[in-house]
Amino acid sequence: MNRAEAWQLVCEYTQSESLRKHMLAVEAAVRAYARRFGEDEEKWGIVGLLHDFDYERWPDAPDHPLRGAEILAARGVAPDVIYAIKSHADYLTDCPRVSRLDKTLYACDELAGFVVAVARLRPEGIRGMQASSVKKKLKTKSFAAAVNRDDITRGAEDLGEPLDEHIQFVIDALVPLADVLGVAGTSPQA
Prior knowledge:
The structure is a single chain. By secondary structure, the protein is an all-alpha fold. The chain has helices at 3-13, 17-37, 41-50, 63-74, 79-87, 100-121, 131-138, 149-159, 163-174, 178-181.
C-alpha cells in the first residue's frame, strides 16, 4: 500500500476532520523518526497515517485496532505494518511493542495529539514552541484530560529518548504541517 492508497483508506473510514488531522500529525512525527533512524520513511509514515483509521467506526477495544487489522490484511498490507498498528493498543497483550517502528508509533501517538492541543492555545501556534511549554501543560491534569500522560512518558522511555528531547523532536516534526493541523497561529512571522 502506498501513501495515496493509505490516505484514501483514511478518508473512506474517517469523516472526522480532527481525527484525520491527528493521523497526519502522527504520520509526520513517525516519518521524522524514520529519517533520524535511517529507516523506510514511506513505510513508517503509512503506519503513522493508518494507526487510527478504524477508530471512528469501531472505537471500543479490542475492535480498534483489530477491525482495521483485518481490513489491512485483506488489502495485502505487510504483516509488520499491521503488527505495528496493533501494538499501539496496550490492551492487546499478544502484540507487545518489539520493533523500533512499534515503539516509535506508540511514543508519537498520544504526544502528537497533546502537542497540537498545546499549540492551539498559543497565539503563535506551534512555531517557536518549546518542550517546556508541553511539559508544563502535562502537569495540568484538567488540560486535554483524555490524554494518558503515562503513555507519553512510557513511550519516550521505550524508545530510549529523554522526554524533553522527544517532545521537542515531535514539535519540530509538526511545524511544517502547522497550516494543515490548524496550529499556524495568528502572530505575524518574522
